[in-house]
Amino acid sequence: MSFDFDATVVGAGAVGLACGRALAKRGLTVLVLEKEGHIGQGVSSRNSEVIHGGLYYPTGTLKARFCVEGRRALYAYLESHKIDYRKCGKLVVATEEAEVERIEAIFQQATANGVEGLEHLTGAQARALEPGLKAHAAILSPESGLFASHDYMLALQGEIEDAGGSVVVDTPFERAEPLADGGFTITAGGKGGATLTTRSLVTAPGLQAHGVAARIEGFPADRIPEGHFGKGVYFRLAGKAPFERLIYPPPIPGALGTHYRKDLGGQAVFGPDLAYVETEDYSVDPAKAEEFAHYIRRFWPGLPEGALTPDYAGIRPKLHGPGEPQPDFQLRGQDDYGLAGLVALFGIESPGLTSSLAIGEAVADMLDA
User: Fold this and answer.
1) Which pTM value belongs to this model?
2) Which of 30, 260, 300, 322 is least surrounded by CB atoms within 10 angstroms?
3) Number of neighbouring beta carbons within 10 Å of residue 160
C-alpha cells in the first residue's frame, strides 16, 4: 500500500529532529509532530547546552557510544552550519584528597570510552588555568564545550524541510493503530489535526515517552519502563564570570551534579541539582540559593554573599528513582515490541543533547534493518 509518509517522528526536540533529519537524509518522506507551539520547548529548552566529552558512562553502553560519536559529529555540524559554540574545555575537580580516587576512576572510564586529549592536572596546574579555583587535583577534558542549542534545532528543522519533510507544531500525537500489512494509522490533534498513514513510527517525546507508548495499539504495556521526573534548578551569578572552562565536581548519585558554566553570553550559571518530582513544575525556589552557595564554595571559595539569583529549571526523563542505579538509554524496536516499523525511545536524558546526531543515525539504521 502507499503511505502518506515513510516515517513519522513524535517530538520536535533535539533528538526527535535529529531522527527526522537522519531519515530524511536517506530519501524518506518525514513528518515530525510536536504538541507545543514551537520546536524544542520541552527537555531540549531547559538544559545546560553543554557538549559532553563522554567521560562518565560505562564502556559499551549506548550513552558512552552515542556521546562520543555524537559529540564528534556535533562539532562538525555546528562548524558547517555556522552555529555558535565554544570548545572551552572542562575541569573535573577533586576539591580534597578524598575525591582524588573518584576523579581517577572517571579518567580511566573516559579513556576506555575513547575520549581524546585527557590530562591529569595537579591542584597547582588547575589553579594556574583557573585562578580562584579550589582544587587538590583535576582532570582536563579539552573536547567539552557549549553551543547554541536552539539554533542547532532550527538547522535540523531546516534540513528536514529542505528534503521535503514537514515539522508540524501545535499538533499533539493522540494515538496510533498498526495496519494489517505493516505501517500505522496515526491520529493527531490540535491545529494540524489529521489522520494519516505512515510506514514507520519513531517516538522521541522526552517526558511524554511513556504516555505516547501507551497510546499505540498493541504496544505491550509491560514493556513500557517506569518513568520518573528528575528536576534540576539553575542559579545565575550577579557579577563577572569567575572561570573560562566548565567546572564539574565529582558526580552525585543519579546525575552529574551542580556544575559551573560561562554561557555563550558571558554570564556564569550554576546547576542543575537533582530532586524527584511528580509533576512538571518549573519553579525555582529562591531559598535554594544558600544550599547552592554552600556547594559552589567547595570549588570556588570566593563566591560573594548574595550573588546568586534564581534562573530556570529543567526536568529530565529518568528511568530510575532515588537510590537506584542509573540505566542506559533505551532505543527499542520490532524485536522488543512485535510492531514492525516502530522505534520507541525512553530515558533520553543527559547526554541526549550531545548524542542527538548519533541517536538519529542509530534510529535510521534500526528502521533500515
Assistant:
1) 0.97
2) 322
3) 26
Q: What cell was used for 66?
A: 552515542
Q: What is the 3-state secondary structure (H, E, C) of the chain?
A: CCCCEEEEEECCCHHHHHHHHHHHHCCCCEEEECCCCCCCCCHHHCCCCEECCCCCCCCCCHHHHHHHHHHHHHHHHHHHCCCCEECCCEEEEECCHHHHHHHHHHHHHHHHCCCCCCEEEEHHHHHHHCCCCCCCEEEEECCCEEECHHHHHHHHHHHHHHCCCEEECCCCEEEEEECCCCCEEEEECCCCCEEEEEEEEEECCHHHHHHHHHCECCCCHHHCCCCEEEEEEEEEECCCCCCCCEEECCCECCECCCEEEECCCCCEEEECCCEEECCCCCCCCCCHHHHHHHHHCCCCCCCCCCCEEEEEEEEEEECCCCCCCCCCCEEECHHHHCCCCEEEEECCCCCHHHHHHHHHHHHHHHHHC
Query: Is the separation of the CB atoms in 199 and 183 below 8 Å?
Result: yes
- List the one residue out of 322, 325, 236, 310 whose CA is nearest residue 275: 322
Alpha carbon 343 to its chain's center:
18
Cα atoms found within 13 Å of the Cα of residue 218, Cβ hemisphere only: 17
pLDDT digit string (tens) for 43-74? 999 999 999 999 999 999 999 999 999 999 99
State how far the Cα of 18 lies from the Cα of 30, in Å rounded to an integer: 12
Q: What is the pLDDT of residues 326-359, one digit of tens each?
A: 999 999 999 999 999 999 999 999 999 999 999 9
Is 75 within 8 Å of 87 (Cβ atoms)? yes
Query: How many Cβ atoms are within 10 Å of 368's Cβ, its own excluded?
Result: 9
d(CA 190, CA 215): 16
Cell of 334: 520490532
315 torsion bin: left (phi>0), alpha (psi -120 to 50), beta (else): beta
CA–CA separation, 351 and 48 (whole Å): 11
67, HSE (Cβ side, Cα atoms, 13 Å)? 30
> Both ends of the chain: CA-CA distance in Å?
20
Cell 542527538 found at? 356
